[in-house]
Here is the input.
Amino acid sequence: MTETTSGPARGSRAKGGKANKGLRIERIHTTPGVHPYDEVTWERRDVVMTNWRDGSINFEQRGVEFPDFWSVNAVNIVTSKYFRGAVGTPQRENSLKQLIDRVVKTYRDAGEKNGYFASPADAEIFEHELAYAVLHQIFAFNSPVWFNVGTKQPQQVSACFILSVDDSMESILDWYKEEGMIFKGGSGAGLNLSRIRSSKELLSSGGNASGPVSFMRGADASAGTIKSGGATRRAAKMVVLDVDHPDVEAFIETKVKEEEKIRALRDAGFDMDLGGEDITSVQYQNANNSVRVTDEFMKAVESGSKFALRARMTGETVEEVDARKLFRKMAEAAHVCADPGIQYDDTINHWHTSPETGRITASNPCSEYMHLDNSSCNLASLNLMKFLRDDDAGNQSFDAERFAKVVELVITAMDISICFADFPTEKIGETTRAFRQLGIGYANLGALLMATGHAYDSDGGRALAGAITSLMTGTSYKRSAELAAVVGPYDGYARNSEAHKRVMKQHSDANDAATRMDDLDTPVWAAATEAWQDVLRLGEKNGFRNAQASVLAPTGTIGLMMDCDTTGVEPDLALVKFKKLVGGGSMQIVNNTVPKALKRLGYQPEQIEAIVEHIAEHGNVVDAPGLKPEHYEVFDCAMGERSISPMGHVRMMAAAQPFLSGAISKTVNMPASSTVEDVEEIYLQGWKLGTKALAVYVENSKVGQPLSAKAKEEKKAEAEPEKVVEYRPVRRRLPKGRPGITTSFTVGGAEGYMTANSYPDDGLGEVFLKMSKQGSTLAGMMDAFSIAVSVGLQYGVPLETYVSKFTNMRFEPAGMTDDTDVRMAQSIVDYIFRRLALDFLPFETRSALGIHSAAERQRHLETGSYEATEEEFDADALAQSAPKAEQSPQVTPREEAKDAKDAQRTVTEPEAPAPAPREAHNSTELLEMQLGLNADAPLCFSCGTKMRRAGSCYLCEGCGSTSGCS
Here is the structure.
């Protein structure tokens, strides 16, 4: 039944009347006559973001205005990322009100201009409801909206793009140009290279074609150049190749070979660190690679049969390969370097709403957006924790009705944005306006499941996730059909109507077949069922406004904007978090979801308090007093002593996938003990369970000394003739009293102390290394190592020999240090000998080894020379004769034990904060310190802290930077 403008609609789920009648909007959260801004308490804050390494200020804006319930992190990120105008000028935005108004009023104006609303009153309600939802962190648009909408620059609203390339030089050069323009704007793109002829095929001139892998080099170099030209994050791109392409094996091996090159060059002394001057020689590092497999190929893998690789122009078989061997190569490569991922072509196109226009051949860089070539998708995500409610009796429920209303509100706004949006290329603009692809999604699923007492890897957890996803997508298409009645269906609908309606029926059937588990998911499934029935009815009558409605994106920066504990579909990272405090400082807190979960599971207040205190002390629930072992799984996280199994991640993706238009941005983390066979099983099960794409990452797969280098050393040793010269060195012992310095250091979060003692007549004579909080094995090995080095020094082994041998040695812990002269270290040993070289070797000797102080490097940038002038030399000598600021006196075992105990202290209640350890700068680094783990995440280009996983991309909690789509 269609409602006209004469009667009010229920909630925001207003039905469209006849064309151009407009939607009637009813309030969800707001009060008539009261603006949402007037219902909250505002306060002024100072945003000062510093570089933790040297204390320098990265960003500063004082007196910004935000609601009092917004966290420090959310305020910092929104102020530094999204406020427009030059800092320090009157034009700079200084209030969240200005940001929200800039965006929301633009949406309202465009909606009124394009006939979306029945009356000005409805437009005002739309504006107020949208502002309320953003203000209260209920949802957020993707980052380009906050960057661009309402400004004088192009109104780009999309973060996800798919390009195309054909088998011609003109098309390939267009690809380079279009990709470059997208990267320049800070967004990412993906494309499929399978139309390009393979290196095994002939050109019309008679010569062999270059093949797609060859052209990938040019695109990769272009992406790297644009990044190094000023961007603060790497270019985000996805490259896809079909499994039947004759060059597929070369494609699979591209990153494996480059990983070997990185290790070999690093061992040879080249600077292969993050941002190092030699890292640019490594290719294919600016893209995620994926192989697009078919059902035919996967069945051949199962049966062990042959599979044909086909010519691009004629479709003829170029060669036949063993399907299992090819599949094995994919798994071996992913096991070593996380690439390539896998995309299931037949599954993807089975759910394609517009097949008459073209197949889906590729995805965006994070793998959640999959639709037509030369198209884009704007994203928005809802904060699921905002819809969890507790009644007076303490019972929990998911507010399905309010959730559906907010979904309709957001989908309406997202569709309006296409009316005024600008696009990086005309082809993308044409396709997006014709098909109006949207990508509504959610964040905080992991927190919601834990808070409701569901294990992430459980039938109940998957049922609730599936129900919410089904309700979200069903409601989105329902509103899309209502919009079609008001402003018309998308231009490509007439040609694709039967396919679109078939896919809607597939979603509805999957909803009906889903298993209902408990009192939380059952009402949500009921609401979803009603929504899908409306979709089928209204879609048959009106058609649909949007070819695509939903995806599950990483929700990186916007997740921080909404103060979400977990991103996208991911589980919680850990049970203890790092939290910034108003006015500076930080603290550790036990997740607020933990007490909620314990209450849901039936524990009494005094039991909850004891369990939370145990978690605060140990970082996990194992042996927590009074906690039943069968409840441990509820508190399993992505990392830690009880981490979720790889198949647990795959099963969660499979639970949500049938209810999504697009796909899911997620990487399946696998433990370091995983085998190639384990990767094969994940890829095989992903296909059987109906996921659209998968990527895996085996922990520590990119860390460690290469086997090839070891083999090379052994071969060299065998070739050398036996030496007959016999040395009888004399040990020169140090006197009882000797000068020395003790230096404290931190490498990749591991803290230690180095004492270096000298002979009275100069020259290093011994070194003692003490590692704190790292366990007896590492501490014992460092003690033994320092004794061995000291004895060697006393027998006359030159320090420069040790420096040349041990610098550039790579193993964990590795990463950022707290030493301004040695910012990055590939291992503790690498740091130690660089520091010793700076302290004890003459300039000429260490300069030949490529080791310079920060002052010398700065001098080189300014003058082209590392050497100091006579005046600078005198000043340096004077400074070196004084005590060093970063050096600390030798600590006693008692003091060290106290430090270790202090570093592990946590709080059980947010109201009783304890200082976080000084080495931690975000939750990832805190987790590493507590559990002695390596998070296998890159360092942020902007602020140097370790990032965390957000889908298949990475997110910096400190400054909000991401490695992919925002």
